[in-house]
Predict the structure.
Amino acid sequence: MGLNEDFQEELKRNLGARHINMIAIAGMIGTGLFLSSGNTIAMAGPAGAWLAYIFMGAVTAGISYTTGEITAFMPVTGGFVRHATAFVEPALGAATGWNFWYTMAISVPAELSAAATLIQFWDSTTNPAVWITVFLVVIVLLNFCGVRLYGESEVIFASMKIALIIGLILAGLVVDLGGGPNHERIGFRYWRNPGAFNEYLVSGNTGRFLAFWSSLISAAFSYGNIQVVALSGTETSNPRKIIPDATKKTFYRVFFFYVLSILIVGMIVPYDSKALSKSTGTAASSPFVIAFQVAGIKALPSIINVVVCTSAISSGSACIFLASRTLYGLSADGHAPKIFMRCNRFGTPWYAVMLSVMPSPLVYMVVNNEASIVFGWFVNVTTVAGLIGWVVIGVTYLRFYYALRKQGISRDALPYKSPLQPYVAYATTLVVFLVIFFSGYAVFFPGNFTASGFLTYYINIAIFAALYMFFKFFLTSKMIPLEHIDFSDELESIRAWKESEESGMFRNEKIWMKVYHKIF
């Protein structure tokens, strides 16, 4: 394992610090923030939604820090999938890899359907299949070319997202303080009437808690693919420095991009607004669009939709990137055919990309269904499967942590030591497990049960369990004893890396760049 693998020569280390930082931002800011956050506010109320994003943001940061420590120690293509193989057992790595692969592959239709939803905001006459085809071609081209082109595209997309969110926060604050065309000061009026919290299924505090809990799944989807940085280890120059740097900024990004934006939009849109929960097949249910339409600002909704449309393309492109690199990692560990390791002259594993693109035509279901309904179905399915990956990350880290301790290896020798471990790993793993297990609790309430609703929330648990049992027998896999986990190759590689760092092979960032990158 590690950086000295024979097969890694075909992949090219063309991702620098700028690319990784922007890819991390682009991966975190998905279409969920702009689209499904409206349903979150309608479900839980402004304070409930705000707390849900804070809560899941803390979990996201914890998972990111945990991932960063292991990835800095073992920066391989395939990331946490191959870490599970190395530190837990091959069956878990194989099951996690194939589970994550189909999650990412199926997420591409989700993002493309979101883009079709946004286009309908302006153009409801053109068949959505036309726009879907255009977006799909762009995404495929970006992934078949070199990883550097993919990195540059994510820099552009992420820059647009950053500019949009900063603009939304500032414009929302101006509107809230009475700076809009109608000069009406709103303040926290909507937190008093209709209220800060909504109720769900039952009344009282129990109903408010259930509304908050139900909104966690939507908040989790909004945080996107935080694993994108970890999966690109072999294609990153100096990954042991760059990946932890990107990881450590997660908390600041969560606070700045999500917590502030949800707080602002919850101040200027009442949660009982019919537009928030209305399924129109357009982006009219986006809370940001609604807020500025109510304030009388006509130009901003179109600007928002342009950027969010590129966000959907960016997220779809990232999903194919993640799926193909996961498949590459599975192939490297012998859990998928070796053909998926074959790269073209750009250093792209093109057979892995081809297979990862194959589920994308499912998006043409939008042609015969309301785009918003299809998007909502994909949201729930892909989110639960993605959260299973988060649980595996936590379990893998705990095995890694205790194996180091068992073998008397100090974490001070690691390139990056994440804070408050192993408590962060225990807490985040437990919380994510509870969110998964109780994600579909509402279907068990009297009169609420539907087969489709039950399967949406729980089918992925059954799929993952079946994959694990299959590989358990197929690979005759056994859990690796803590004392037998091999750290020697990576520790030797780390020692060589530290010597090169001390000799100045890799230059440190300038002070002003460090300040800038603290958030961005």
Remarks:
- Residues 104 and 319 are 5 Å apart (CA to CA).
- The chain is about 65% helix and 0% strand.
